[in-house]
Amino acid sequence: LAKTTQPISMDSYEGQEVNITCSHNNIATNDYITWYQQFPSQGPRFIIQGYKTKVTNEVASLFIPADRKSSTLSLPRVSLSDTAVYYCLVGPEGYQKVTFGIGTKLQVIP
Amino acid sequence: GAGVSQSPSNKVTEKGKDVELRCDPISGHTALYWYRQSLGQGLEFLIYFQGNSAPDKSGLPSDRFSAERTGGSVSTLTIQRTQQEDSAVYLCASSIDRVATNEKLFFGSGTQLSVL
Q1: How do residues B53-84 score in pLDDT, each as one tens digit?
Q2: Of A58, A70, A90, B11, which alpha carbon lies 20 to 30 A from A30's?
Q3: Cβ atoms of B39 and B84 closer than 8 Å
Q4: Pure H helices in B49-115
Q5: Chain B residue with minimum CA distance to A35
């Protein structure tokens, strides 16, 4: 399964757009890219998933370049409530067996 | 129920005791997973159930760990002879179907296990 690399932590001020990039150089043809969000004392929550190009939902956007070797989760105009750990997962069917990694701890500052 | 339910939310036990952690998945979800999360760490896969198929136990750290899923719904994770290194948050997740490659996991809030 593709290994992912993402920053351990990021800080952002309220109202700013936050972009978290995940590197996955050995992504396979049938791999999907999925992002989860985890608040303290809660289980992770699915945010967005994509295969190529751009995906947007009510929470975030996911940008995937043509080579798919990286992906960027974009959170528009973050608020304090967006403070959480964000995990990038890459894998096909059965990827859920993989550990989530440490993720990126996003701290939103007033 | 509306979401994945786990009980208890907190469990304190003494070293050497057995503990049982319970998970009620979302109704209709055929796949159920257990993960473990140590403080400040990512999620470690433990075991996976899919319908009536044999569970995938490849992530269980030792033979002290076991899990059952009765009637394709409720699951119980049992840790025998608990050790201090078992202290962690144990998370349960369910999904509609394992077959789809774009599967989404729904997690419970977890059980915080503390072994003294």
Answers
A1: 888 888 899 999 999 998 878 999 999 999 99
A2: A58
A3: no
A4: none
A5: B104
Instruction: Quickly count: other Cβ atoms within 10 Å of residue B106's Cβ.
Output: 18
Which residue in A32, A99, A104, A105 has the most chain B C-beta atoms within 10 A of its own C-beta, making it the best mutation to test that interface? A99
Dig out the tokens for A88 from the structure. Answer: 């990038």
Q: How far apart are CA A22 and CA A40, in angstroms?
A: 22
Among A32, A45, A98, beta carbon nearest to B101: A32
If DSSP codes are grouped into helix, strand and coil, which group holds residue B20? strand
- Residue B29 sits at φ, ψ, to 5 deg, of -80, 130
Residue of A nearest to B104 (CA): A46
Cα B76 to Cα B69: distance, rounded to the nearest angstrom: 6
Partnered with residue A108 across adjacent β-strands are: A12
Neighbour count for residue A66 (Cβ, 10 Å): 7
What would the pLDDT profile of B86-115 be if each residue is shown by its tens digit?
999 999 999 887 655 567 889 999 999 999
pLDDT for residue B2: 81
Q: pLDDT value at position B51?
A: 80
Q: Do B105 and A36 lie within an 8 Å CB cutoff?
A: yes
